[in-house]
Amino acid sequence: TPAALRELQVEMIDRFGLLPQPTRDLFAAAELKLTANALGVRKLELGESGGRLQFRAQPAIDPRKVIRMIQREPMVYRLDGQDKLRITRELATAEARIAFAHALLEALGPAIG
Single Gene Ontology BP term (predicted)? Predict the structure, then answer.
């Protein structure tokens, strides 16, 4: 769970001090994986020039959100078949990819409030 992941991170900081960037990136990737899985995302791949998001058969995502994203930013998002969202955006660093993935999953997730 995300709470267990945060608890582990706090424990590691208590034992070893500040975590190096690769370790922080690993925790961020694990958190993204948990979030993506809860939304029904089978795979999220991002590289320096973009990537793709592949949905499961019945994702917990409103398809209208995906359509609105494509309509707002057609140069960034496009459908690739029935279950893939292709992403075209420069994401030169691991930090940029992690931040983009967080924002993407948040935009696709259920509204809070």
Answer: DNA repair
Both tokens assigned to 56: 């499961």
Q: Is 8 in contact with 34 (CB distance < 8 Å)?
A: no
Average pLDDT for the chain: 92
Strand order in the sheet with 50-55: 41-47, 50-55, 84-88, 77-79
**What does the alpha-carbon distance between residue 11 and residue 76 come to, in Å, rounded to a whole number?**
39
User: Does a structural domain hold residue 113?
Assistant: no
| Mean pLDDT, rounded, for 2-13 | 89
Strands 50-55, 84-88: pairing is antiparallel
- Pair of tokens at residue 79: 């459908």
What letter does residue 74 receive in the DSSP assignment?
Answer: T
Domain of residue 88: give its range: 2-108
Distance CA 17, CA 52 (A): 35
Residue 1's pLDDT band (cuts 50, 70, 90): confident
